[in-house]
Amino acid sequence: MMMMKLGELFCGPGGFACGALRSSSADGSLGLIHAWANDYDPDTCKTYITNICPKELDSVHCGENGWRSRNSTDGIRTNWKNIF
Questions:
Q1: Which of 79, 74, 50 is nearest to 62 (CA)?
Q2: pLDDT tens for residues 26-76?
Q3: First to last CA, the chain
């Protein structure tokens, strides 16, 4: 099966991803895997992580400028490892 990557802007709690990741093409040759997501609301990002990618915390970027470098030190990106 060929897997395509799913990236989401303004992901919300993960409803679109939930359906998309459970889908495949009619002949079973195509599917989707989670690659990254972003949203501006920390609670929404925590819900997305819980629903979609609990083992891939660094793939969800949160905040107004949440898609900055993972090593950003400006305090915009939340450190999920301290929340969960």
A1: 79
A2: 999 999 999 999 998 989 999 999 999 999 988 999 886 544 444 444 444
A3: 33
Backbone φ, ψ for residue 65 (5° rounding): -115, 35
Distances, alpha carbon 83 to alpha carbons 6, 50, 74, in Å:
24, 12, 18
d(Cα 84, Cα 65) in Å, to the nearest integer? 21
Task: Specify the pLDDT at position 81.
Answer: 53
What pLDDT sits at residue 63?
A: 80
Q: What is the pLDDT of residue 39?
A: 93
DSSP secondary structure, 22-67, as one string: T-B-TTS-EEEEEEEEEES-HHHHHHHHHHH-TT-GGGEEESTTTT
Residue 6: phi and psi, rounded to 5, are -105, 125
Pairing type for strands 30-39 and 60-62 reads parallel
